[in-house]
Structures are given as structure tokens and as C-alpha cells.
Design brief:
Elements lengths: L1 H19 L11 H29 L1 H21 L3 H25 L6 H26 L4 H20 L5 H6 L3 H12 L4 H14 L16 H8 L6 H8 L2 H19 L2 H6 L1 H5 L8 H21 L6 H29 L8 H14 L4 H9 L5 H30 L1 H22 L8 H25 L1
Helix pairs in contact: 1-2, 1-5, 1-6, 2-3, 2-4, 2-19, 3-4, 3-6, 5-15, 8-9, 12-18, 12-19, 12-20, 12-21, 15-17, 16-17, 16-20, 19-20
């Protein structure tokens, strides 16, 4: 996950050099249109990576998929290091995006599926904060070394991840589905740090039960589980995605997909990803009385610190309340930020605005409060265990599509309608989606998946009943 953050960090630190024509291997200036392609093509690669991972994970296993993602990172950074033309650099971004897509898809399968419920939130926090940490690391290194040296360091980091992954065993659930019971028990023993084979067998059944909507199939009769009971409990594999599609079309699952799409839309339509990735392109000349790189390091450090802080309080936090607070606070920051641009540029006809570092820090805090992490947590909670993989891939591909469109259009909108109008648009979007969250998003904290499914059914019935009543009155 740290490596995925370095992909974003590289663009943040390198885009000004690419635009100014001072980048090591590309000594010519690049237009905003070309810069937008460099950024947004990562989204296309991520879509390819997610689809590739979803089709391969049940064939070669999560660990092998992560090792495969390392190959894409190595290939991508190697191309960036030797890129002398814009098409080669764009190709490298697609390849890096494929690595990001595979990693983001497989990581929850490999790590979080084996986590106990009392540490699952902590692992989620670490995985989410690893991305801003990787971005901060890339920017800090890139601020003090040459562009080529930065890419070499990121290349060596990707290479070093291969032996680190190699020491870990394959996913116990994958080994179970392949009928490798002994290897699955050995993997459980590794992850649970126990040498007791009997306890490992119990943990394997508990793990299988946790990832099934029907826990009764995975109960054993005595305190000491036998080989026959273990084989019976773990012999049945999961359904294929074709068999899961009819289940996704059930009303409560369609409603869950709607909530997932809504949360991802809120994440993107507050403009966070575009504003941060293009920050130095837009504000380099407006950072007054401060070093540009120092200011950006401060902003990225704020993102990391508050992502970790709010993540540590996630276990007892109300998901719905945090999302609503974060959305409305982001709206306030964006509107005030837009007013600042309007006053200094349109009214005073000035070239500079107030120091944007303060606005960016406030924006980081309000975003990390809820929108940064909780959408992924809620998406993990609202789908049944057997549908999480299909539902997650659908929602995350939608996420990548929004990233592609927004990162491609952001600079064009700034040039055509003005950056203050773009910020007003993001702020009004936050207000609009705040109301949607208030109407449609249920609270999921501390609720079992079965109870959440019942709540979704009740909420959907209530909403449909209101609309039918309105139609009858009309």
C-alpha cells in the first residue's frame, strides 16, 4: 500500500518540472492537456488491474497476485526512468495504474480476511494511512534529490517488496478452496503465531465461518475437530461471479450498491483528489513567504497525521455522523477558499491570493475526518461476505472512472471558468450530497451483517413506500 502511495506522490512532486521543461529525461515543457493525460491514465490502468486481479485471484491466489503487482510497479518505474517521450511516460502511468489496481483489490483479500474483529479496524487504519505515507515519502525524497534518483529509489523499493512478500504464506482461504488443507493450517499457524495444529484447524473453520453468510454450515460437533469435520467444513468453494449476479440484483443489495456509489461520489465531488494532485501546478506562484516544497510537505504530513488519528477512533465512531460532519465542513472550507480567489483575483485584479497552505491544511483535516476512510469501511460492512468481492470490484471500478474523468477535466475547468467557480461547484456538490447521505445512508457501527441486511430491506421498503404514496396523491 505504501508503494501505491508513491505513485501519487511522484506526480505531485514531478508535475511542476514536467510543465516547466526541467524534468531530467524530458527537457521540454508539457501543456496542461498533456499533464492531465499523464495524471488520469493511472485510473485507466487501475481499472485494468482490478479486472485482472478479480479474474486471477481465485486461480493463482492473493499472494501471487501481489507479487504480480510488484512486477507491474517495477516495469512502470523502469519505463519512467528511461522515458524520453511523452507516449512512453503515459504508457508507464498505465502500467503503474495496473499495479495500483491489483494491490488495492487483492490487499483486503490477503490481509484483512485473516484479521480478528478486534484488530480489523486497526489494520484498515494502517492500510489507508499507508497511502498518504507513501505519497509523503515520495515528495520528501523528491524535494532533495534529482528526478532520476527519485525514480531509482522507487524502483528499488518495488524490487525489495518481492522478497518481503515471499516470506509470507498463501491465503488460508485460497488454499482451502484448492483442497490444500494441510498447507492452509500451516498458513493459519504462521499468521496466528501458534504451533498447535488443533488450534489452527479451529481457526480455519472460524475463518471460513466468518466469510460465509450461513455460519451454521461451519460448526463442528465436539471441542476437538476431526479431519473429516475439517474436510467437510472447508470443502465447498465460493460461487462464481456469474452465480453471484442474481444475488446482487436483490433489492437490499441494489440499495447497498447505491450507498456504495453515493459514498464514492461524495469522495470525488468534493474535489479532494484533483486539488491535492494538481496543487503545485495551481498554487506554486501563490505560496507567499514560504518554500513551495516545505509547504507541500506540511500539507501531506497533516494528511498522514489526521488520517491516523481519526483512524484510531474509527472503532467507536458513528459512520453516518462522521461522513456528514466531514462533508459539511469540506463544503465550508471550499466555499471560503473560492471566496478568497474571487476577492483577490476578480475583484482586486491581483495575481496572488492568500497563502493556500492554510486552506489546504484545513481541507486535509476536514476530509480525513470522515470522507478519507469511512466510505471504504461502510462498503466493507454493507455487503454480505459472499458478495463483497463482486460488489467491491463494481464500486471500485466506478471509483476509478470518476478519478479518470475528474483528473482529466480539472485543469480545463480551471482555465475556462476560473478556479473560484470550480471551488464553488465542489462546495455546492458537498451540500447536495450531504442531504443525500442524510436521507439514504443507514448507521452500520456495531451491527452484524445480518442486521445490516435487514436494515437495508426496511429502509428500501420505507423509501419505495413514500414514493408510491406521493404518486397516489398526485
Amino acid at each position: 500500500m505504501v508503494i501505491t502511495g508513491t505513485v501519487q506522490g511522484w506526480t505531485t512532486v514531478s508535475l511542476p518540472q514536467l510543465k516547466n521543461g526541467t524534468y531530467d529525461n524530458l527537457p521540454f515543457s508539457i501543456t496542461n492537456e498533456e499533464i492531465s493525460w499523464i495524471v488520469c491514465l493511472k485510473g485507466i490502468g487501475s481499472i485494468i488491474g482490478r479486472l485482472l486481479a478479480y479474474n486471477l485471484v481465485n486461480m493463482i491466489g492473493p499472494k501471487s497476485c501481489l507479487l504480480l503487482s510488484c512486477q507491474f510497479f517495477i516495469s512502470g518505474w523502469f519505463l519512467v526512468l528511461n522515458a524520453t517521450t511523452l507516449p512512453i511516460l503515459c504508457s508507464a502511468r498505465i502500467i503503474l495504474g495496473i499495479g495500483v489496481g491489483i494491490t488495492n483489490t487483492v490487499y483486503p483479500t490477503y490481509i484483512l480476511e485473516m484479521a480478528d474483529s478486534n484488530v480489523r479496524d486497526a489494520l484498515t487504519t494502517l492500510s489507508v494511512t499507508s497511502v498518504p505515507f507513501g505519497s509523503l515519502m515520495s515528495f520528501c525524497i523528491g524535494s532533495f534529490v534529482s528526478d532520476a534518483t527519485l525514480v531509482k529509489i522507487l524502483l528499488y523499493l518495488s524490487i525489495s517488496s518481492i522478497p518481503l512478500l515471499a516470506i509470507f504464506p498463501e491465503s488460508p482461504l485460497f488454499l482451502t478452496r484448492k483442497g490444500c488443507i494441510t498447507e492452509a493450517c500451516e498458513a493459519i499457524s504462521f499468521f496466528k503465531d501458534t504451533s498447535n495444529l488443533h488450534e489452527a484447524r479451529k481457526e480455519l473453520v472460524f475463518l471460513r465461518r466468518a466469510h460465509s453468510s450461513d455460519a451454521r454450515k461451519y460448526r463442528y460437533k465436539s471441542d476437538r475437530i476431526t479431519n473429516d469435520e475439517l474436510r467437510e467444513a472447508t470443502s465447498k468453494g465460493g460461487k462464481s461471479w456469474l452465480k453471484k449476479l442474481p444475488l446482487i440484483l436483490l433489492p437490499n443489495n441494489i440499495y447497498a450498491l447505491f450507498i456504495g456509489f453515493l459514498l464514492i461520489t461524495v469522495q470525488h465531488f468534493n474535489g479532494y483528489f484533483c486539488i491535492m494532485e494538481y496543487f503545485l501546478i495551481i498554487y506554486e506562484k501563490n505560496i507567499i513567504d514560504a518554500d513551495v516544497n516545505t509547504g507541500m510537505i506540511l500539507i501531506l504530513s497533516t494528511a498522514l497525521v489526521f488520517a491516523f488519528y481519526f483512524g484510531t477512533t474509527l472503532r467507536n465512531a458513528k459512520r453516518r455522523g462522521r461522513i456528514m460532519q466531514s462533508t459539511i465542513l469540506c463544503m465550508c472550507v471550499l466555499i471560503i477558499w473560492g471566496l478568497d480567489f474571487t476577492f483577490f483575483i476578480r475583484i482586486n485584479n491581483g495575481e496572488n491570493v492568500s497563502n493556500p497552505i492554510v486552506f489546504a491544511i484545513l481541507y486535509q483535516i476536514t476530509f480525513q475526518l470522515g470522507l478519507g476512510m469511512i466510505p471504504n469501511v461502510v462498503i466493507d460492512e454493507i455487503f454480505s461476505p459472499e458478495l463483497k468481492d463482486v460488489a467491491a470490484i463494481v464500486v471500485m471500478i466506478y471509483d476509478d472512472m470518476l478519478y479518470f474523468v475528474q483528473s482529466k477535466m480539472y485543469l480545463n475547468f480551471n482555465e475556462n471558468i476560473g478556479i473560484d467557480m470550480v471551488y464553488y461547484y465542489f462546495g455546492i456538490s458537498c451540500l447536495f450530497f450531504f442531504k443525500f447521505i442524510d436521507l439514504f445512508m443507514p448507521e452500520t457501527r456495531g451491527k452484524t451483517n445480518r442486521l445490516i441486511q435487514e436494515i437495508l430491506k426496511e429502509d428500501l421498503t420505507y423509501i419505495l413506500g413514500i414514493y408510491m404514496l406521493i404518486d397516489l396523491i398526485d
